[in-house]
Amino acid sequence: MKEYILAINPGSTSTKIGIFKGNEKVLEKKINHDLKDLEIFNNVTDQYEYRLNMIESVLEKEGFALDTFKVVVGRGGLLRPIPAGIYKISDEMIKDLKNAVRGEHASNLGAVIAKGLAEKINVDSFIVDPVAVDEFRDIARISGIPEIERKSLLHALNIRAISYKFSDEINKDFEELNLIAVHLGGGISIAAIEKGRIIDVNNANEMGPFSPERAGELPVGDLAKLCFSGDYIEIEMKKKIKGKAGLVAYLNTNNAIEVEEKIKSGDVYAKLIYDSMAYQIAKEIGKMSTVLKGNVDYIIITGGMAYSDMLVQYIKDMVNFIAPIKIYPGEDELEALNDGALRVLNSREKIKIYEEEVYSND
Ligand SMILES: Nc1ncnc2c1ncn2[C@@H]1O[C@H](COP(=O)(O)OP(=O)(O)OP(=O)(O)O)[C@@H](O)[C@H]1O
Ligand SMILES: CCCC(=O)O
């Protein structure tokens, strides 16, 4: 009997899978990938067979036959700009992901694997709120140099799932609230949400505060100088901005818990860096409150670093004049994928068609 939903979330070093029966998670597994195994692939989507085989082995070992799944849902990747929602995985979408039309990202594999598995058993496959969700007004796209556009790229899956959860908890519709939603993970997304639409966000890869591994916004003159200093080739510069930046660059770790231990043992430099990250996060929240013209109902803070009392307290002290603050530490993207699939299966939300939304966005 087809009774389960299979959720697939590929990350840079692991693939997480979740099996759900209605709202109940009956299995969660994290498949770790050896970096040496991944290095041989030129593009992320070339890892398809490798990761698919590992998922199938886990399913077999755990006793879940493929034909017990009624739908397969994957994390969406760097697609063309599209509104938030749940999308049927289409050939056009797969083509864009394989061609990396907006770049390489581990989540590009989510749709490819979900569709591959679903086709074997002849069921539907979906993605939910991919990182490419774009609900910006044109005014938010202008950067200051015509060749460069400000882009909407964010942790949309977790941000929207937590926003829905919070709205339910206070018995309001997400579409009637103005929120600032903050995801504090390896990357940091800070979004202004007006009546359910994400109208502005920093773009965790390129702007906003620095994070455990990323540089965030940088003084552009000095950045240009560094690029042309002759000391770095392009790939090194890219790594310097994303991966080897932020806490990693200053303190040699991307682990906020380790940084807090240093601070507690009296490391003044670690405290300066950590406080500076908190300061920049608070400053970005302030920016988003202006985007919403001060009409902010709540600030919600989520992601792994939301577990940190030290960080959250610093931020709260700076921004609690703006709106009440609610903290949801951690993330459950597998649950968010399942929730999305259920909303479609229970006819609470209409499935979107990628090609139609891309076209209507042009
Ligand atoms: N209890 C805790 N106290 C402080 N920091 C924590 C705690 N638990 C996790 N973190 C920190 O949260 C960060 C990782 O967050 P998270 O797991 O949400 O990110 P990720 O999934 O790796 O990346 P991303 O969210 O960008 O996709 C790390 O710096 C980690 O040390
Ligand atoms: C760019 C937003 C998503 C991510 O950092 O993974």
TrEMBL record:
EC category: transferase
Keyword hit for Magnesium: no
Main location, first listed in the record: cytoplasm
Name of the featured protein: Probable butyrate kinase
UniProt superkingdom: Bacteria
Coiled-coil region: none
Entries under HAMAP family matching the protein: Butyrate_kinase
One Gene Ontology term from the biological process aspect of the record: acetate metabolic process
EC number of the protein: 2.7.2.7
The species this protein was found in: Senegalia massiliensis
Gene Ontology CC, one term: cytoplasm
GO MF annotation list: acetate kinase activity; ATP binding; butyrate kinase activity
Location(s), subcellular: Cytoplasm
Family from the record: Belongs to the acetokinase family.
Reactions catalysed according to its record: butanoate + ATP = butanoyl phosphate + ADP
Highest classification ranks of the organism: Bacteria, Bacillati, Bacillota, Clostridia, Eubacteriales
Keyword set, alphabetical order: ATP-binding, Cytoplasm, Kinase, Nucleotide-binding, Transferase
